[in-house]
Amino acid sequence: MPFSHHSHSGQFCAHAQDNLENVVKAAIARKMQILALTEHMPREQQDLYPEEASVSQSLTGLLETFRQFYVEARRIQQAYLADINILIGMEVDWIRPSSRVYIEGLLTEYPLDLFIGSVHHVHCVPIDYSIAHFDQARDLSGGSNEKLFEDYFDLQYEMLTALKPPIVGHFDLIRLKSDDPNTKFAGMEGVQRRISRNLTFIANYGGVLELNSAALKKGLKEPYPNAEISKEFLSLGGRFTISDDSHGIDQLGCHYWELLGFAKEIGILQIVYFEKGSCDKDVRFPNVTSKAIPLSDLESHPFFA
Fold this sequence. Notes:
- The protein is of the alpha/beta class.
- Helix content is about 40%, strand content about 15%.
- The strands form three sheets. Strands 1-2-3-4-7-8-9 form a seven-stranded parallel β-sheet. A two-stranded antiparallel ribbon has the order 5-6. The protein has a two-stranded antiparallel ribbon with strand order 10-11.
- The radius of gyration is 18 Å and the shape is globular.
């Protein structure tokens, strides 16, 4: 039963493609059984991405866009109830400590099924948008990749402890625009210590780490998180799900064969998924439950035929 717990559409995300309903129809045609619709949360005015600023987008506009997304997603959820299990959520973006109040306000206003906890900014600079932006963030960290990595995982820890997200998004996204996107963190003692701290916290509160295939789409050799991080999380009894982080129809289930191969190499035996049902862990989402499917059963699904 292939699924993705992380997706975007061009209708509600400036750097994605395709109408939201068409994305859902494509997922059904590809025999996907669960799709979480997780558009980006609205960000404050100073945090707009260049493509948003270029069309004179504003916080007020982004808030209205998110409202429209929620209404449309609920309509689609009901319209295709017999064909696919649709979950409605958002990808939060932890930028600074004040993000907490803003995010909690959105969670109160919109009764979501789940959310993804992500970090895309360090020192309020986007670290996955361009090499120039990454370099700017690195300079603000003191000029070294290692110190920027430390700052990233510290910010991620702030997000984890404040929000305890059901799903943690692209855990080591900081690799993407670095000098070596396939870098290993071995030998970076301060970075490794922070990674271990974060992974332990996630495992202890029962969070789920996504194996995110977008890294493979962007040319990296391993998904997010990489093998060393995934093995450590597995050793802690951590739970994994799979996501394509799709930004359009052509990316649905992208590189899932490689993702499953990676999971087998790591030694992951089962994959977690979320669906509608009685709450089993997170009381914030009383109508959603998590289950697990053996990796071998997932491989035999017609999606992979």
